[in-house]
Amino acid sequence: MPSLHTRKRIGVYLNENKRRKLNFDVFEELCRNHGYDVIEVDLTKCLNSQGPFDLIIHKLTDLLIEAGQDLASHHLVQRLQVYLDTHPFTILLDPLPALYTLLDRFQSYRLIKSLETQQQGVSALFSPPCVELMSKRSDMVDLVRDRLTFPIICKTQVAHGPRSHEMSLIFNERGLKDVTPPCLLQSFVNHSATLYKIFVVGPQHFVVKRPSIRNFPLGETDQTTIFFNSHHVSKAESCSHLSQTPLYPDVLPPSDDVVRQVVQGLQDALGMSLFGVDLIVDTQSGRCAVIDVNAFPGYEGVSEFFPALLSHVDKLLNNSKESPSALEGSPDVPTCEDRKMDLRSLPEPCKRRVGSTSYFTIAFSADC
Question: What global pTM score does this model have?
Answer without folding.
Answer: 0.85
